[in-house]
């Protein structure tokens, strides 16, 4: 069996590892445009703030690791055409410009995504940079070394993390977000407001409901950023305005969602039985929505790539879907979320209930008994949990994983309210803050269901 993987992304790497394990006799070829592989883009802000010494430290695999195992890993190679009907690929060596053809029995598309570049006049200005790939992150960090002020366009995960990283490193930082509040796809406005205040307290200028209309060169080698309401001078800008799946190679050959991401079944198989897709190139099954969603996250890519690699020769493992569980550290605070927001639940036509719990994460007599906020969402018809968001100076990331597991398995507010969780004053109250949020929801629904 000849397996070709296009894209040595996180999904591609995960797939190759499983193919080597489950199909040791397979001939594996991997084509990758970049020279480097396995860069964790979330490390860019960590390098900016000084936590990670070098960008290269955020790579977890090298081409040689796979070549030693017999994988034909071709970096600096670009697949320029796929003919699914004939199982043929047209490939260009980006160094020699030589074009060659190769065939496959099974194909895995792990081409990832690219940063969505907004249609803004002057966005091609060299002072406006991207930060997704290793090369982009390297250029961003190298350029920033001699600058003092930066504007970040896009207030999602990447944008907020970059803002925190630059602020920690002593830069003057402006964060510009088109929607009404930061992280609007992940948290409720109440938590977003708290995050905006945390950033503001650290010197970040947060602008929401703000649309950038142009970038222009300004005196003193600065960059002029114009919005509908005002204009600002900075030394540089970074774009973090979302992700677009790279799937043009299969346009018209497999079924795709409206955003261009490839539709796959529970085995990561596309509408073509010999082609699989994983990671940012593919759609995912959203468990709380019970529909498909686009979730360009590293953890999701690794899971999908693992499933694709295992199933490439034999349909043996189903995907568990996703709750789009995420987390981030903003200075001393942890924000974590899983499942749906209130707006997303309403858009999915769920009869959604919502409670907000606030209290100390452990007894007040303990030092540093930091306040914790829990936003809990559930379906009022069947009482199943739909989502949760948490914010605290204590690490509450694993609490989001707990809720994620409950959502994945159809857990209810009644189960959460009395879920068996350890107690120690070092860690929590006699009832964990998740229990207490569940109890608030049960009370809101007029008590426990009779069992």
Tags for this entry?
single chain, 451 residues, alpha/beta, five-stranded parallel sheet, 11 helices, globular
Question: Could you please describe the fold and organization of this structure?
Answer:
Strand 1 (2-6), helix 1 and strand 2 (27-32) form a beta-alpha-beta unit. The chain contains eleven helices and 25 strands. Helix 1 (10-22) packs parallel to helix 7 and helix 2 packs parallel to helix 5. It is of the alpha/beta class and 451 residues long. Strands 3-2-1-7-18 form a five-stranded parallel sheet. The chain has helices at residues 10-22, 43-49, 63-67, 134-144, 157-168, 189-201, 298-311, 342-347, 397-408, 413-417, 433-444, and strands at 2-6, 27-32, 72-75, 77-83, 88-93, 99-103, 106-109, 113-115, 128-129, 149-153, 172-176, 205-207, 212-218, 222-227, 231-234, 236-239, 243-245, 275-277, 284-286, 291-293, 326-330, 333-339, 352-360, 371-379, 385-392.
Number of helices: 11
* Structural class by sheet pairing and helices: alpha/beta
Q: What are the segments in which pLDDT stays under 50 over at least 5 consecutive residues?
A: none
Q: What is the C-alpha radius of gyration, as a whole number of Å?
A: 23 Å
Mean pLDDT equals 97
Number of strands: 25
Secondary structure: helix percent: 10-25%
């Amino acid at each position: 069996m000849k397996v070709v993987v296009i894209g040595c992304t996180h999904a591609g790497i995960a797939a190759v590892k499983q193919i080597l394990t489950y199909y040791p006799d397979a001939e594996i070829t991997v084509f990758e445009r970049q020279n480097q592989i396995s860069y964790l883009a979330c490390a860019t802000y960590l390098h900016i703030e000084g936590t990670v010494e070098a960008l290269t430290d955020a790579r977890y695999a090298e081409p040689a690791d796979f070549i030693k195992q017999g994988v034909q890993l071709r970096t600096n190679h670009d697949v320029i055409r796929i003919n699914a009907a004939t199982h043929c690929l047209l490939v260009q060596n980006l160094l020699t410009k030589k074009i060659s053809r190769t065939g496959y029995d099974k194909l895995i598309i792990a081409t990832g995504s690219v940063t969505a570049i907004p249609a803004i006049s002057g966005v091609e200005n060299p002072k406006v940079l991207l930060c997704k790939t290793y090369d982009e992150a390297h250029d961003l960090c190298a350029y920033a070394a001699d600058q003092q002020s930066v504007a970040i366009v896009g207030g999602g995960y990447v944008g907020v993390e970059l803002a925190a990283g630059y602020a920690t490193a002593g830069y003057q930082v402006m964060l510009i977000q088109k929607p009404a509040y930061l992280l609007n796809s992940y948290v409720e406005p109440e938590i977003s407001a708290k995050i905006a205040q945390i950033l503001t307290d650290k010197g970040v200028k947060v602008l929401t409901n703000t649309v950038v209309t142009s970038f222009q060169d300004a005196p003193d080698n600065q960059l002029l950023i114009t919005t509908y309401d005002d204009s600002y001078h900075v030394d540089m800008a970074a774009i973090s305005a979302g992700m677009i799946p790279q799937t043009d190679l299969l346009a018209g050959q497999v079924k795709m969602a409206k955003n261009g991401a490839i539709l796959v079944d529970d085995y990561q198989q596309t509408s073509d039985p010999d082609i699989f897709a994983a990671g940012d190139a593919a759609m995912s099954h959203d468990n709380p929505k019970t529909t498909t969603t686009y979730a360009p996250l590293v953890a999701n890519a690794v899971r999908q790539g693992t499933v694709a690699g295992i199933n490439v020769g034999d349909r043996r493992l189903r995907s568990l879907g996703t709750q789009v569980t995420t987390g981030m550290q903003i200075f001393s605070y942890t924000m974590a979320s899983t499942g749906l927001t209130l707006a997303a639940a309403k858009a999915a036509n769920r009869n959604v209930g919502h409670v907000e719990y606030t209290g100390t994460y452990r007894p007040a007599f303990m030092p540093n008994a930091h306040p914790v906020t829990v936003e809990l969402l559930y379906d009022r018809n069947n009482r199943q949990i739909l989502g949760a968001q948490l914010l605290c100076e204590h690490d509450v990331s694993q609490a989001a994983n707990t809720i994620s597991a409950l959502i994945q398995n159809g857990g209810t507010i009644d189960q959460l309210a009395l879920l068996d969780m350890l107690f120690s004053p070092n860690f929590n109250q006699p009832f964990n803050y998740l229990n207490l949020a569940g109890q608030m929801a049960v009370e809101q629904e007029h008590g426990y269901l009779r069992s």
